[in-house]
């Protein structure tokens, strides 16, 4: 039984291999094979794997030789190559059995070709042996640089994170053969991002190497390089950029930029009136910048501060009415603190920021003020016209102390002068009216629009000015012979 041997050439080193299983009388075919080739036994045949380097630029690269030992060189044998790639990627010299690659091969597109070989006796037209398969493997060269497939990379990490905190892992891929030396073994390094970041060489894990303050810089661009061949000479590389943003933590307390605020309030302002705003600033953002304002010192307990949570301002409001003539200025101290503070960050908030507020009370022209809320006077009836009833008194509460004019509303019985003295204009009769309800009006001379009124009640007292009278006329009868002491008849 005849056997075929494939004769490959690698690196120009031909070798001679015997056909396994051949007897002394067997016809043999000789194969030239490189050192390190792999042998596979199939039905007594010895087939070898052929290796072709990828990316060879020559138009015809010798792969190996298929030769029968029955071939005595008289050109009576014809060698044929069959299968996918035969004739297009690989050709065979039909006379010598030499196999050539006629196209540049790319292992990353196709790493293995399975072909079939056949030897035909030209004189008989018959196959010397049945066709059989053999393999041509495309050997890898380092022709692919590492590529980062998950770009763009973006990560968020809290500011002030300690050294060693994991930020993100970047991963590069190399299309070269991982089993071919170090072609696909990658090494990561940091091209940009020191001294705040570092990268683990074999994993691509980025970690923090120095604390960062978001208020100084809130984002960083880090450039990572991946090199194949574990960074050895001739290695190919690829890079990627990573945007790292710092998220805020509450490491800043709110601070008043102004140590003194000056506000004013009218003495006529009702309670609840907003008299001004104060503002603190916090370098943090979002929830970490929400504030609460409050009064720290206010002995008079006249003012309060509420927080506008939309603008983060403190609104100073009037809690009690003020009087310019009683007190025309106040001093209070306000403080501010964050609304949300994590227990771990309390060290940044040990002492609240404070500010002093001076409040000036503005004088307004107030109406006259009576000394009493109402007056009650008494006078006897039948007193002559012009008799004294009583005195009311009102004053201007303002500093200018305007003189006061008095008047009585719709009364024909009483009169009042500019001193507030009330007198009668007619004689009074208790039996006609025992009480008079008066309305006294006080008007400032300097500003007649400033007026006030007060009720005055006058009681008319009785005097004995009427003789008794019978309620009807009586007619009496007595008998002519009536004795002394005898009753009369009506």
Number of folding domains? 4
Q: What is the oligomer described by this structure?
A: single chain
What is the CA-based Rg, rounded?
60 Å
* CATH superfamily annotation of the largest domain: Cadherins
Average pLDDT level: 85
Principal-axis shape equals rod-shaped
CATH architecture assignment of the largest domain: Sandwich
Please explain how this structure is put together.
It comes from Colobus angolensis palliatus (Peters' Angolan colobus). It holds the Pfam family Cadherin. Keywords: Calcium, Cell adhesion, Cell membrane, Glycoprotein, Membrane, Metal-binding, Repeat, Signal, Transmembrane, Transmembrane helix. The protein is mainly beta and 490 residues long. It has four domains: 91 residues, Cadherins (Immunoglobulin-like, Sandwich); 101 residues, Immunoglobulin-like (Sandwich), CATH 2.60.40.60; 108 residues, Cadherins (Immunoglobulin-like, Sandwich); 93 residues, Sandwich (Immunoglobulin-like), CATH 2.60.40. The chain is 0% helix and 43% strand. It is built from no helices and 39 strands. Strands 6, 8, 11, 12 and 13 form a five-stranded mixed beta sheet that branches. It is rod-shaped, with a radius of gyration of 60 Å. The chain starts with a strand and ends in a 29-residue tail after the last strand.
